[in-house]
Design goal:
With about 450 residues, the protein is of the alpha+beta class. The chain is about 35% helix and about 25% strand.
Length: about 450
């Protein structure tokens, strides 16, 4: 293994996940932390740690110069970006490599190509992967968007060319709405990504969000099957499954094959995810974007296939070839992940940072809890509210939901409010049990009052 000392340029549960994967491979871990994170679990678990700046992310986890300097100071030979922050920043990759270190992920050129939504669509079309009808290139003027919308028809989805995580996205039902929303989307995209470029595509009504996990070593790629990620609030995933029961075997096979074809076409290295919209009525699927990093929801794929995705991406980033062939990757049972956020779901999901006064984690076969908590830990207010992910694996979907319900009841995070009550309500919902939902399902469900004070009872101690 070429990598002996790994610098983790991230925080929270993904930092803990990377540390454990790397240490199991015999790699020395060096954890970056801001002044607000000096007592986080990742710092306690890592072999070494280095402060990279003040609490605001712009001065620490997004500060390329500070991170590269710290990694160099720590004599790291590789940097793992996790997800979010600088994980899909080509400039960061180039800075890491210029300092003589490896980047655990794809090349800067691949990120430039696949991280840009317009370029990614063009690459997908070139590889024969179907895409949603939309603009052929980035749009910088509102009048250009108006002209394209007239060709493809309303409603249209406005997206940030350099975006991700749902930021900058708007749906316009008419030209009037498009004229109003396009400047808003441009401003949000510029503020979030430093790039106000947009692209436009036809909005698919009530679609399922399906994504395919791939691994690549630059020459060969494999898929690790699909995930179903339609349960979203404000376009942020809250509940993810592996696999997607809504797909036929024929559609699943085609979907996964297109993902491998696209990954190999761009010489992909590392773990990546190709996201698609799936129309359950026509059974057609369309590529929407590629995430050139490890995903928050990667554990459901690991539970389904038994593959350690984080370890595999470290190996291929060190120059090794993929350790498995496609026919060696099998799937067993069904896995579900729910995201546990420090938020009050009865107060419009208001962030609720605070001190964890008591912690009880469910255990048993098929149960996994990825987190960065311990009793007495003070959750800082400066970052994303995700504090943990509860993952279960059952013999089938029904069995997984039953296991999820019992695990949710056992999970206790006292001292802060969390989204556990949301998931307890969802596991009893008839449509969820019937796998009958889509990307626009959850918010109307919440608006109808399905999450009540009764489900919140007993959450905060």
């Amino acid at each position: 293994m070429q990598i002996k000392r790994l610098f983790i340029a991230n925080r929270g549960e993904i930092a803990v996940r990377i540390i454990r994967a790397a240490q199991a491979m015999g790699i020395t871990t060096i954890q970056a932390y801001s002044e607000a994170d000096s007592d986080m679990l990742a710092v306690r678990l890592a072999d070494e740690s280095i402060c990279i700046g003040p609490p605001p992310a712009a001065k620490s986890y997004l500060n390329i110069a500070a991170i590269v300097e710290a990694a160099t100071q720590g004599k790291a030979d590789a940097v793992h970006p996790g997800y979010g922050f600088l994980a899909e920043n080509a400039g960061f990759v180039r800075a890491v490599e210029a300092a003589g270190m490896l980047f655990v992920g794809p090349s800067a050129d691949t990120i430039d190509r696949m991280g840009d939504k317009v370029a990614a669509r063009q690459a997908a079309e070139a590889a024969g992967v179907p895409v949603v009808p939309g603009s052929k290139g980035r749009l910088d003027a509102v009048e250009d968007a108006i002209s394209i919308a007239a060709e493809i028809g309303y409603p249209v989805m406005i997206k940030a060319a350099a975006g991700g995580g749902g930021k900058g996205i708007r749906i316009a039902q008419s030209e009037e709405e498009l004229r109003k929303m396009a400047p808003q989307a441009q401003a949000e995209a510029a503020a979030s990504f430093g790039d106000g470029g947009l692209y436009l595509e036809r909005a698919i009504q009530s679609p399922r969000h399906i994504e395919v996990q791939i691994l690549g070593d630059g020459e060969r790629a494999v898929h690790c099957y699909e995930r179903e990620c339609s349960m979203q609030r404000r376009r942020q995933k809250v509940w993810e499954e592996a696999g997607a029961e809504c797909l036929s075997e024929e559609t699943r096979s085609k979907l996964c094959q297109t993902a491998v074809a696209l990954a190999e076409a761009v010489g992909y290295v590392g773990a990546g995810t190709l996201e698609y919209l799936y129309d359950s009525v026509t059974t057609e699927f369309y590529f929407i974007e590629m995430n050139t990093r490890i995903q928050v929801e990667h554990p459901v794929t690991e539970m389904l296939t038994g593959i350690d995705l984080v370890q595999e991406m470290i190996r291929v980033s060190a120059g090794e070839k993929l350790s498995m062939t496609q026919d060696q990757i099998t799937r067993t049972g069904h896995a579900i992940e729910v995201r546990i956020n420090a938020e009050d779901p009865l107060m419009q999901f208001m962030p609720w940072p605070g001190q964890v006064t008591a912690l009880q984690i469910p255990e048993g076969d098929g149960i996994r809890f990825d987190h960065f908590l311990y009793e007495g830990y003070q959750i800082p207010p400066f970052y994303d509210s995700l504090i943990g992910k509860l993952i279960v694996h059952g013999k089938d979907r029904q069995d997984a939901i039953a296991l999820l319900k019992s695990a949710l009841k056992e999970l206790r995070i006292e001292g802060v409010k969390t989204t556990i009550p949301l998931h307890l309500a969802l596991v009893d919902d008839s449509q969820v049990l019937a796998d009958d939902f889509h990307t626009q399902w959850l918010e109307p469900w919440l608006a109808r009052g399905n999450l009540t004070a009764q489900t919140q009872k007993g959450e905060i101690q």
